[in-house]
Amino acid sequence: MTASHDLTRRAALTFGTAGALALAGCADVSGDGSNDDANSSPIAPDDTASAEPPAAGEAVAATADVPVGGSIDAKLGSDPVLVAQPSEGEFVAYSAICTHQQCVVAAAGAEFHCPCHGSIYDAATGEVLAGPAPEPLSPIAVTVAGDQVVTAS
Ligand code: FES
Fold it and tell me: Residue 53: CB within 6 Å of ligand 1?
């Protein structure tokens, strides 16, 4: 459980950084104070909550929605996340923000696929299986509460 707690803290910090980077990608490029990329960005430009670590106990997905050996796209608040169940009753979650250029990665069974440049991640571990992503996806500590996958403290 200690390792899990360490992961939680690191994940929260890393996830917050990824969210901030994603927001930076939505920045005003024309210099007129507007958000020029508001409609095409997968991350809401006013999503400042993504810089905060997720609170414990927040529902991420229903356990029944996550196939054993598979994964789903989900939301944690307004942040895109990925939830997988590598073996029955074992749930893992990750920020869906690609570590390459912050596109939103999609669930693809036992893998996660980035639509932008083709990075592939292992859904069980978040590790990069194929680049150009330089780092694993940021893990989010989760546990099961009733029939829900929820964030862990
Ligand atoms: S942003 Fe995901 S592979 Fe480039």
Answer: no
Phi, psi of 24 (to 5 degrees): -60, -35
Q: Provide the residue range defining the domain that includes 66.
A: 2-151
Nearest CA to ligand 1 atom 4: 117
Q: Which CATH number do you get for residue 131?
A: 2.102.10.10
> Is residue 105 within 8 Å of 121, Cβ to Cβ?
yes
Number of compact structural domains in the chain: 1
Q: Are 64 and 147 in contact (CB under 8 A)?
A: yes
- The CA 50 to ligand 1 mean position distance, Å, reads 19
Per the confidence metrics, is the pTM higher than 0.70?
no
Q: Which residues of the chain have pLDDT under 70?
A: 1-54
pLDDT by residue (tens digit) across 42-72?
444 444 444 566 678 899 999 999 999 999 9
> Ligand 1 centre and the CA of 114: distance in Å?
6
